[in-house]
Design brief:
The chain is 46% helix and 11% strand. By secondary structure, it is α/β, with parallel strands linked by helices. The longest helix has 19 residues, at 242-260. The structure holds 5'-deoxyadenosine. 5'-deoxyadenosine binds at residues 52-53, 151, 153, 192, 223-224, 226, 270, 305-306.
Length: 350
């Protein structure tokens, strides 16, 4: 029954009625406030080789960087001072001891340095550093990360295999999500929408998967080409399907909201790459989270997962002003200095 309902939404051309329904569910279960997650892309070094991603290991044209601890802490303090409430620490997949020790140390220090009257528990921290072991996830949790994002990318085993080398398995991603939940994280996942070969049925299964795994947060967006990846052969096809993929992305947000109700859903930057007001539209279709970039301007261009990443030449303070105006333009308010945790999480752990 549920699956039919999702398929009906994804196949519908009546966008406005879907938008209204999703918005009213959001209003009732999550509220209309929008919460910020300052997104810091702190290293683009990656041991993985996902065929679609611009920072994959085999992309020799990518300039690799890693920020220092001091740089990260300064940005975290800026994020807290500017009222964002939370930040996301994201990097390419790395698993060596040095990296793990570094992240653990950074988490602890951010927590120490961002406690204030406005934020008595410091900045909320979401971590997004890929597949790790149970032990590593536990160390990061104990060091202060309380949310974790790990996209499943697609729940179709066939598509997953087409997009990843054999060493990267769908089963391991699922196992990681189970471990993260068990440790006590608020867990986020998501998929890419419009992958060549992906069907409406696949996308409906993705949403059912979010429900089955009792996911707290969702971040999903359109699949976009990066020309320095093997997927560049699909450029022409993707160009033709652009409008369709964008609308499908909005319908996926709406369907997730309607089915899952009280989860946090991000209006992702990839939406903005496709449409100048993509993120605002995401908010109107049921999203309640935005992730203003806090990555230093000089390295924004080196963290390109797909071509056409927006806001590359801006500074963090530009993004702050710009985003606030965009959010106001769709009649929403920002929950400054709040963590804005997923309401679903608190119901789940009760
Ligand atoms: N298009 C859209 N999203 C992408 N990601 C990586 N490469 C692309 C791309 N070409 C997404 C993946 C990953 C997240 C960090 O970025 O879903 O999990």
């Amino acid at each position: 029954m549920e699956k039919q309902e999702i398929i009906r939404i994804l196949e519908s051309n009546n966008l406005e009625s879907i938008r209204k329904k999703a918005y009213s569910v959001m209003k009732e279960y999550s509220g209309e406030k929008v919460y910020y997650r300052g997104l810091l892309e702190f290293s683009n070094i990656c041991i993985n080789d996902c065929y679609y991603c611009g920072i994959r290991k085999s992309n020799k044209e990518s300039n690799r960087f890693s920020l220092t601890k001091q740089e990260i802490i300064d940005i975290a303090v800026w994020t807290a001072d500017n009222g964002y409430g939370s930040m996301v620490l994201q990097s390419g997949g790395q698993k060596d001891d040095k990296f793990i020790d570094f992240v653990e140390d950074v988490l602890k220090t951010i927590k120490e340095k961002t406690i204030s009257e406005k934020l008595p528990n410091g900045l909320g921290i979401t971590l997004c550093v890929g597949e790790q072991t149970h032990e590593t996830y536990k160390r990061f949790f104990d060091a202060g990360a309380h949310r974790y994002l790990l996209r499943i990318e697609t729940t179709s085993p066939i598509l997953y295999k087409k997009l990843h080398p054999e060493t990267q398995t769908l089963e391991n991603r699922k196992e990681c999500l189970r471990i993260l939940k068990q440790i006590g994280y608020q867990v986020g996942t998501g998929v890419m929408i419009g992958i060549p070969g992906q069907t409406i049925d696949d996308l409906a299964n993705d949403i059912l998967f979010f429900k089955e795994y009792d996911i707290d947060m969702i971040g999903m967006g359109p699949y976009l080409i990066h020309k320095q990846t093997p997927m560049k052969i699909h450029t022409e096809e993707m160009e033709k399907r652009k409008k369709q993929v964008f609308n499908l992305s909005l319908k996926m947000i709406a369907a997730a909201r309607i089915l899952l109700k009280d989860v946090n859903i991000a209006a992702t930057t990839a939406l903005q790459a496709m449409d100048p007001i993509g993120r605002e539209k995401g908010l109107q279709y049921g999203a309640n989270i935005v992730m203003p970039l806090v990555t230093p301007s000089r390295i924004r261009k080196d963290y390109q997962l797909y071509d056409g990443k927006p806001c590359i030449d801006e500074q963090s303070s530009d993004c702050r002003e710009c985003l606030l105006n965009r959010i106001k333009s769709v009649g929403r308010e920002v929950g400054f200095n709040e963590w804005g945790d997923s309401k679903h999480f608190f119901k789940r752990i009760k």
